[in-house]
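F.,

This is the one I mentioned.
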């Protein structure tokens, strides 16, 4: 039986984002959709629940294995909007297309997905009306073939981590 050995932390490459301003959400079918982002939570990557591989030969601990595939988690945003343009926003609901998240350094994540929900918040005196949106990802292209998210570095070629 082997014992896990320590690994020294190396120096990370790339450049961390200094500021989240400006981060944008772009829909392929309406690149000028009529809302103004105030907060964007990009999608994440999730390897799924661990697989229990414990059997009757274990004597000390339960054992697990990672899954082979990963999932793309939902992206979320908060925005200001004009109620007069809700028909354009509704036209994006459940329509699979390329969704682009543009980070403050110009780098982008592109993935096939759709606007799952657009929910106005309560309107309150003295505050700007906002809405929240949820974007879900399909991980398939127009022909139904598997398609993972695609990352592009910014124009200066500096990747972020």
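My design for it:
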């Amino acid at each position: 039986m082997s014992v896990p050995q320590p690994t020294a932390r190396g120096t990370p490459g790339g450049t961390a984002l200094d500021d989240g301003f400006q981060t944008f959400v772009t829909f392929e079918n309406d690149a000028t959709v009529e809302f103004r982002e105030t907060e964007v939570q990009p999608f994440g990557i999730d390897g799924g629940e661990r697989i229990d591989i414990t059997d009757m030969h274990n004597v000390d601990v339960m054992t697990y294995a990672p899954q082979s595939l990963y999932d793309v988690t939902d992206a979320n945003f908060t925005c200001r909007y004009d109620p007069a343009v809700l028909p354009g926003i509704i036209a994006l609901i459940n329509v699979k297309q390329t969704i682009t998240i543009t980070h403050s350094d110009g780098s982008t994540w592109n993935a096939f997905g759709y606007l799952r929900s657009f929910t106005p918040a309560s309107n309150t005196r003295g505050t700007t009306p906002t809405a929240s949106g949820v974007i879900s990802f399909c991980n398939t292209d127009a022909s139904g073939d598997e398609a993972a998210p695609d990352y592009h570095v910014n124009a200066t070629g500096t990747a972020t981590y």
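The longest helix spans residues 86-90.

Talk soon.
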